[in-house]
Amino acid sequence: MKVYLAGFNVDASVLQELEESCGKRQDLTPEVISAAYARISRDPRPINEIRQMARVEVERSRKSNSTIIFKMGHHSVAEHAVFNLDILGVSRYAMEELEKFRLSSYTEKSQRYITLDKDFVIPSEIKGSDLEKLFVATIKEQNKAYFELYEKLKEHVFNKHPDLASDPKKHNLLEGWAKEDARYITALATESQVGQTINARNLELMLRRFASSGLSEINTLGRMIYDEISQVAPSIVIFHEANDRDLKTYPQLKTVTDTLLSSANLKESSPSESLVQLVEFNKDTDALIAAALLHTCSNITYEQCREVVGKLTHRQLKKVFDTAYKNMQFYDSMLREFEYANLTYNIVLSAACFGQMKRHRMSTITTQRYDPNLGATIPESIEEVGMKGKFLEIVDRTNETYGKLCKKQPLIAPYILTNAHRRRILMRLNPRELYHISRLREDTHAQWDIQNVSRQMSAEARRVMPLTFSLVGGKDQYNDLYQDVFGQLPKITKAALPGTRKISN
């Protein structure tokens, strides 16, 4: 057995310095990795030799990539080329589009930990118009309120937690709590930045979607990304231009939907509706997952496993689940058999909460536009410092501006809405993924807004699938949950001790 390190992410500045000191090199491109790996299936030579040859013959490698991807349709070859992108000066609203792509990695500037400045994006669609003046004036009001709220909330949290305030090392934590609630009054136009890691195949998809977007900010971002990567890897990002599927499908569906709903006489959105609704789920999930567990551990068909499970007593069924659970630690993921069931939620949540929920990309999330009729999420701390009236005043002014923008530029109107404004999403996920969300988002260290949403999701799931969700809850609650099920604490393994870590797939 042999293992060779074929490559790894290197800062582009290091590569530039290498070229400056050693001369221009054609092989400083991820294309050679893609070209080499593409030949593995048909070339008998060892991989490392194929890779070495690809480096020597870069132009041939590029032609090979184009042939394999374009003519033969083997797009997976492009997945071997990976890019790291620094993306700065993008609005929070555009960031939602950027982070839709589930097979990429993102680390974004956090509005919870960094004091916001006054930088914001003015959509080019309104630059030079009266709408720009209205837009900027509204943003300035929001930002002024942010700093007022931050100062009051900072004093409030320091007074509310004197034990933490007495320790200078905890001051950043307390200030973070103030920032995370003050940011609810800031606009989706606020600038942000993100580090993204993405392979060429997903980058191509992203660029195609960006080229088809109705927002100029997204179009510009796509062009700038392509300009960067096309210099070093022109052969593996081919289908990057706008197409009819991405340009026309949703607008045409919107036209059909409007026609169908025009005579339905439905009520407008209401902020009083339940914020988390479990709207669809497998009725017999406990039995379904138990059958999947039996299937893995036997040599009979799934139908036979379902028949066996259907004859089990509750005690026997519980034993199946208990056996699946008993060796787990709080950091372990559920067994893969927990992916065979599905739950679908209708959720109304703030922009601030959505910014976190959208990170759970293994679920299926589709969104409606932000809707002021759904109300705004107001942090309790803002009420506690007596600023609810001021907060609602800014929200009302924002809604007025939004209404005026909607009449002339409906696509860019959401830029002006705040992190407190809400949208409705449809979210489908399996129990394994819900466990992951629950462990992370119901933990005491999680932000309160997504804590509330994920807690309601877990409660709904536990109500209809009691055995499947026996251990659902934040990671800080895990020992208590485990003790409720087994009457004892989980056995501590080395990986669970402080200073160690384990990553589960």
List keywords for this structure.
Gyrase A, domain 2; alpha+beta; 505 residues; 4-stranded antiparallel β-sheet; 20 helices; globular; disordered C terminus; 3-stranded antiparallel β-sheet; 4 domains
> Separation of termini?
25 Å
What number of domains?
Answer: 4
Q: At CATH's second level, what is the architecture of the largest domain?
A: 2-Layer Sandwich
Residues in β-strands, percent? 5-15%
Order of helices and strands: HHHHEHEHHHEHHHEHHHEHEHHEHHH
Q: What ranges have pLDDT less than 50 throughout 5 or more consecutive residues?
A: 497-505
- Mean of residue pLDDT values: 87
The strand line-up of the biggest sheet is 4-5-7-6
Question: Mind explaining what this structure looks like?
Answer:
It is a single chain. By secondary structure, the protein is α+β, with helices and mostly antiparallel strands. It has 4 domains: about 10-75, no CATH class; about 85-245 and about 375-415, Gyrase A, domain 2; about 285-325; about 335-370 and about 420-495, Alpha-Beta Plaits (2-Layer Sandwich). About 50% of the residues lie in helices and about 10% in strands. It has 20 helices and 7 strands. Helix 2 crosses helix 3 (about 45-55), helix 6 (about 130-160) packs antiparallel against helix 8 (about 170-180) and helix 6 (about 130-160) runs antiparallel to helix 17 (about 390-410). Residues about 495-505 have low confidence and may be disordered.
